[in-house]
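S.,

Sequence below, as promised.
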Amino acid sequence: MRQVERAIFDLRRGLPILIRDAASDLLVHPLEGCDDDALAALEALGGTPPALALTRHRLTRLDREIETPAALLPVAAANHAEELVAWACEEAASLPANVALHTADPRHEAALDLMRIGLLIPAAVVAEVSEAKRDRVESLVSEGTVLAVPLAQIAAYDAAQSRFLKRTSEAEIPLSHAERARFVMFREADGMREHIAIVIGDRETWHDAVPVRLHSACLTGDLFGSLRCDCGEQLRESVRAIDERGGGVLLYLAQEGRGIGLANKLRAYTLQDGGLDTMDADHVLGFGDDERTYGVALEMLEQLEVTRIELLTNNPEKIAAMDQGGVEVVNRRGVYGKLTEQNRRYLDAKAKRAGHWLEEVLEQEGEAELTSLKRPFAR
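The prediction came back faster than expected:
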């Protein structure tokens, strides 16, 4: 576990790492921070021509369809780092017609997994370690200059994260929509992310099916009132609704931008300004439709001893995640913000492409405020 955490730290600093498998070793450099000097240094260290590992979603945007999660794009000596960046995350980029993709193996897929976990663009420059360079690479690993991570550890890391949540601190914090609120902080094992459970009301008076909201953090909407989404209004309306129903729990999850992180979310916003919807913009950057998982939420509910819930959501994936994780969703209630000129396309994409239940919102005209929790929805 610690080796993977250190690898993520190094990658976020723009440093290469080594993924070690029984058969061979792979040098990995993040796309972010990769310039011509770094590209040349990686090739010199590995002794083999580098390649660019890209996800299936990104390659689809480049008109290259693959069935596997990732593939490799060979990098020629004449290619500059700025070309690799364009191939990895620019909407207008195109691949040379005569370049054939190479098959990615589990090491390459693990490299992209590390980028996602580290909230980096999911693309990596990779190079095999040749036999002639093996001793040199081993000396760098021994002296601590290059970190080596076993492939098996990376494969096990992400799945294990939600089982190592630590409840770190808590405090009573009266809110404008819920005067009886207690914030309970949870920290993930690697220390990178912290999540908050806002426990509202007196537990003794809660309903048998506890009102619960899973709310993914949105700095721009929750804090600054961005008009590009309805997140801030959903957050405050959820707190109010839970309080009115006698109390419950709001889980504030560190999953900015549907799990891609704030930096990538801002990149996606720029792409949306060029005409893409929210999902296509994420695909251009190499991400899937929604990178969030809910293992952390399930672990938080388990530690809070909540097993039967009334889920405040418009997202069918959250219901499925709770069901699959052993939390009984007795009922669903919709929760809405305000339809604006700026967020209409965002909400429309969520409804049409992700199946969110937003019919009542999208039927509205103009910017009239919508009443949250209009009616209970039976499952």
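The radius of gyration is 23 Å.

Coffee later?
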